[in-house]
Design a protein that fits this description.
The complex is a heterodimer of chains A (about 325) and B (about 160). With about 325 residues, chain A is an alpha+beta fold. Chain A is built from twelve helices and twelve strands. The termini of chain A are far apart. Chain B is built from five helices and five strands. In chain B, strands 2-1-5-3-4 form a five-stranded mixed β-sheet, sandwiched between helices. The chains are: A alpha+beta (about 325), B alpha+beta (about 160). The interface between A and B is medium-sized, with 32 and 33 residues.
């Protein structure tokens, strides 16, 4: 058996205590949620998919193994009960950060467009990892393979974060923007902790699509590319009122396809529009190269994934017209 | 600093003195001598270390032993007495679904979790249940056949 890496294990019982521990350890502590990423990196000592982020600092996990500000403590937040569970609140779904992926998949509370999350989760890892991995962990480990992030960003999900004293809501994309620059330890600024995400229901006439290349088993694996899209189509003239597109698995954080969104919004939906939009943002995309695909190959595949996600989203939106 | 904790393993409460950084895999093998559980990749890729926690399969190499406090842990040793194997163990033997045996404990525990929840799974559901296990010998087909055979025998 591989020798175990030593660390200090901290077990807070409240958010206040957890925030205080984060503050005390000044960047040398990592929050432990499900453990599928954190524990595997800790044990492996190296991030062996050898991710390389073009134009950015090395990934968090490489920093982890390279000894730059190596974390010394794990803050195990599983003892904070209020972080688990799913609640239906009016038309939104409140999902606790410690809710496991399988709990999300098996929840009967997901309705309409939210049910796409069940299909997405079913393609993430395997049953054993889904029984451990958490929604919050999947979003915040800074891993390009964070499978939920692109679709949640497209759906306009909000995050609820806490500094131990107060909670506040913030759009998920704003949360990702707060840590655009990779740090040695995955953490939110100001010793904050993600406690919940709020998933809205899809608007009438909207459709959501998601596509990824592989069904990799391991939590250490990384799909070559993924894409998610949400389209809202007007019932009377089939005008695309709103579009949101993100590419996942290619960059440290999901990449927003702003040019394609602007191109599609306001146009009357017709065949061929999607194909034109699919590759519009690939010029600005700088994908990682790793064991599963080179940067150039990922960019090509990403275009196909965007195309398929848009096709799914438009189909669902057309079917939902007037609903 | 070592800590004394109580774990419920195979229906029996065990008091163990462990380091806080020890994984459940390490405690089961090194402290409790339950070597039916296998240590292989150590990073959640192969499935050899699978145990059941409250009836659900998880990778014990990715779980701190501290997190198993207050939960029911089942290893292959706790599945059935040696002189009266579980139907899954018998079916694996009869179908030739065991060769080197490295993946077998994890495969059987994941199959048990599946059959407990879904006594008549389809082949697709069986393959999904063993998706997180790497087998270098059997080519998986015999394992699927063994699980199907068990499902049939348990339904009678």
């Amino acid at each position: 058996m591989k020798p175990l890496r030593r660390f200090t294990l901290l077990e807070p019982k409240s958010l206040k205590e957890a925030a205080s521990m984060l503050n005390k350890w000044e960047g040398r502590a990592v929050i432990l949620a499900g453990g599928t990423d954190t524990m595997s990196c800790w044990t492996a000592r190296t991030y062996h998919t050898a991710c390389y982020y073009k134009g950015t600092e090395p990934s968090v996990l490489r920093c982890f193994s390279a000894g730059h500000k190596t974390p010394r403590a794990l803050i195990n937040i599983k003892g904070i009960r209020r972080l688990s569970g799913i609640k239906k609140d009016s038309k939104v779904l409140r999902v606790g950060a410690l809710t496991t992926l399988n709990e999300l998949r098996e929840s009967s509370m997901l309705t309409n467009g939210q049910t796409i999350l069940k299909d997405i989760v079913a393609k993430m890892g395997c049953i054993e990892t889904r029984n451990m991995a958490t929604v919050g962990g999947n979003l915040l480990t800074h891993a390009p393979a964070a499978g939920l992030a692109p679709v949640l960003l497209c759906m306009g999900v909000k995050a609820v974060v806490s500094d131990g004293e107060r909670n506040h809501e913030t759009p998920l994309d704003a949360l990702f923007n707060t840590f655009k620059k990779p740090s040695a330890v995955p953490r939110l600024p100001g010793c904050q902790i993600l406690i919940q995400i709020i998933i809205p229901d899809l608007e009438s006439g909207s459709g959501v699509g998601y596509e990824k290349t592989t069904d990799m088993v391991s939590p250490m694996s990384n799909p070559i590319a993924s894409a998610a899209a949400v389209l809202k189509i007007n019932a009377t003239g089939k005008v695309i009122e709103k579009s949101r597109i993100y590419i996942g698995s290619c960059t440290l954080y999901p990449y927003r396809c702003k040019r394609a969104e602007e191109f599609l919004t306001g146009k009357v939906f017709e065949e061929g529009l999607i194909a034109e939009a699919a590759n519009m943002d690939l010029g600005g995309l700088e994908p990682i190269s790793d064991n599963y695909g080179s940067s150039e190959y990922r960019a090509l595949v990403a275009g196909s994934m965007v195309h398929r996600a848009l096709e799914q989203a438009s189909q669902m939106a057309l079917n939902n017209l007037g609903s | 600093m070592k800590q004394e904790i109580v774990l419920k393993i195979n229906g029996k409460e065990e008091t163990v003195l462990i380091e806080p950084w020890q994984t459940l895999l390490s405690v089961l093998r090194d402290n409790l001598d339950l070597t039916g559980i296998k240590s292989s990749c150590g990073v959640g890729e192969c499935g050899a270390c699978t145990v059941l926690i409250n009836g659900s399969p998880v990778y014990s190499c990715l779980m701190l032993a501290m997190d198993a406090r207050g939960k029911d842990t089942v290893t292959i040793e706790g599945l059935a007495p040696l002189d009266s194997p579980h139907p899954l163990q018998t079916a694996f033997y009869e179908e030739g679904a065991i060769q080197c045996g490295m993946c077998t404990p994890g495969m059987i525990l994941s199959a048990k979790a599946l059959l407990d929840r879904n006594p008549q799974p389809s082949e697709v559901e069986i393959r999904e249940a063993i998706d997180g296990h790497v087998c270098r010998c059997t080519g998986y087909n015999k394992i699927v056949l063994a699980i199907q055979k068990t499902a049939r025998s348990l339904s009678k």
